Amino acid sequence: MILHLVAFTWKEGVSADQVAALTVALQEMADGIPELVSYRCGENLRLRPGADYAVAAIVRDEAGLTAYLDSPAHAAVYENHMGKMLESRMAAQLPVPEDAHL
After folding, report:
1. Angle at Cα 19 formed by Cα 7 and Cα 34, nearest 5°?
2. Average pLDDT over residues 21-34
3. Which of 7, 34, 87, 99 is at a distance of 20 to 30 A from 19, taking alpha carbons?
4. DSSP SS3 for 23
């Protein structure tokens, strides 16, 4: 399995309402993508310095990652929400053992 991690930093002036709408849109998107084994998204708790927001998605394989990232639903969330908010983005993919407790 693959863990896809993404950390986002927002442009100046992004509102709490925009972030809340993005979270709803991402959760609805995730519910409709069968390749996602696990999906979490949300604002940084700010327990340590870091990005404003993060997504952690687990898929079974590279084909699942491609299906998720290239899905029309993913593109729509970017176009309708994320693209207007985004200052910077960092992503990484990590292997997840098949016997991992999710």
Report:
1. 65
2. 97
3. 34
4. helix
